[in-house]
Amino acid sequence: MYYDAESIIQHYRCELPKDKQWKWIFDASGFGLKHFMQVDVGIRLAKLISSEYSKNLTKIQIVNTNMYVNLVYNIISPFLSKKIREIIDM
C-alpha cells in the first residue's frame, strides 16, 4: 500500500544497514501518479535517510526517471541533507 507511510518507513528501518557502506539503486520504472500523490512517504523517507542512514551511504543512483520522479525530487530535496543531495545521480 503506497499510502501507509508508517509501515514503509518501518520496513526501511528494518532493512537498511547502519554499520556498513551501501549504495541505493532506485529503478523508477512504473513510478507514476499514484506514487507521486503520496509525497509524504518521500518526505519522511528523505528525512530518515538523511538523519539515520547517510553516514555509510555512498551513492543513490536513480534509473528510468520520468516526470513524476523529477517532481518528487524537487519536492523532497529541501528535506535531504547536503551530503545526500551531492551523492544522487539521476
UniProtKB/TrEMBL annotation:
Classification via InterPro entries: CRAL-TRIO_dom, CRAL-TRIO_dom_sf
Gene3D superfamilies documented for this protein: CRAL-TRIO lipid binding domain
Coiled coil: none
Residue ranges of domain CRAL-TRIO in the record: 1-90
Protein's name in the database: CRAL-TRIO domain-containing protein
Organism: viral metagenome
